[in-house]
Fold this protein.
Amino acid sequence: MEERITTAKAIKEIMDEKEKTAFVVEHDLLLVSYMADSIINFAGESGIFGKGGRIKNFEEGVSCLLKDLDITLRKDKESGRPRINKKNSVLDREQKEQGKWAVF
């Protein structure tokens, strides 16, 4: 995992240094959080049809994804890494009531 984080940080540094954009497809929110300034969410059925949304800032894009999945996320106090809340847990319910699908 540490190697993946180091790689993500290196990609971000190169993007910043060269003032270039990278289109990264990634499933790991931790790695995305190290690289992304903005997000494009896609909806549809894999291999059948899909539709891309507008470009959103990182937090808005992640929140949109999590809301569609009915999942809330928080940053772990000890590791600083994103953690998914258990469905219907106190944290899950509190965040949904506040409309905060992701707390960083």
The CA atoms of residues 30 and 79 lie 11 Å apart.
